[in-house]
Amino acid sequence: MNFAVEIDKEITRAQQARQRGNEGQARVCARRAAGIAVREHLKRKGVPSSSPSAIDLLNLIKDDPILSPELKLIAGHLTLRVNEEFKLPVKVDLIAEAKVFCEELLK
What we know:
- With 107 residues, the protein is mostly helical.
- It has one domain: Up-down Bundle (Four Helix Bundle (Hemerythrin (Met), subunit A)).
- Helices cover 64% and strands 0% of the residues.
- It has helices at residues 3-19, 23-44, 54-61, 69-78, 94-105.
């Protein structure tokens, strides 16, 4: 399957999960979309992606010196852990950020 189609499907799943009130699933889908983008980015650079985990891929790329500060910040947000109330420690829209991340990374 085409990576762009996979990204779109994950973003759609994230939006649907949010509409159902399942913010946890929305976060997972947003991360998966970003992970697909990272995998494609690495493939284009000739770097094999050793992990199927979106979190691992995001952690790997957020230290890339070529990555813009905005994309590093978004990658950081996408890898944040939730607190005891299952909320992120910062107020961000991971779906919107994942869209920006994917678009910018794959330009």
